Known about the structure:
Helices cover about 45% and strands about 20% of the residues. It has one domain: Sufe protein. Chain: A (Alpha-Beta Complex), CATH 3.90.1010.10. The longest helix has 23 residues, at about 120-145. The chain is of the alpha+beta class. Helix 1 packs across helix 2 (about 65-80), helix 2 runs parallel beside helix 4 and helix 3 runs antiparallel to helix 4 (about 120-145). It is globular. The chain has a 3-stranded antiparallel beta sheet, with helices on one face.
Amino acid sequence: MSSLEDLYRRVIMDHxxxxxxxxxxxxxxxxxxxxxxxxxxxxxxxxxxxxxGKVADARFLGEGCSISMSSASMMTEAVxxxxxxxxxHLAHQFSExxxxxxxxxxxxxxxxxxxxxxxxxxxxIKCATLAxxxxxxxxxxxxxx
Length: 145
C-alpha cells in the first residue's frame, strides 16, 4: 500500500470515527432529506438550512459503512457557507471523481479527495454518493420553497 493510500484510509477512518456535523437541525430551521441504499443498508437523514442562496448549515444522521458515513461528514464540512451553485458544482465534481473522471482543477476537494479510490470499486460508489444525492435533492427542495 502506498503512503498516499494509507493517508487516504486514515482520513476516511477519522471522519467515520469522529464525524463532523453529526446531528439534526430543528425542523423550523431547515429541511430534511432521507435517503437509503437498499443494496447495502446505508441510510442518511440530511438536515439542510439554505438562506439567501447559501448553505447556512448541514447536518446528518445515519447508519452505514465507513465510506458512506465519512462521505457524509466530508460533504457537510465542504458545503457549509458555500452558495447553492458552488455546492451543486462540488456535488457534480464529486460524481465525476466517483466515475474515475478528471475533475476541475480549480475545485479544492480537501478531505473529499481521500474518497477518490472508491472509483475502483463500483459496488461502493453508491455508498460514497448517498449523502451527495441527498444534498442535491435538498437543494432542489429549497429552491421550490
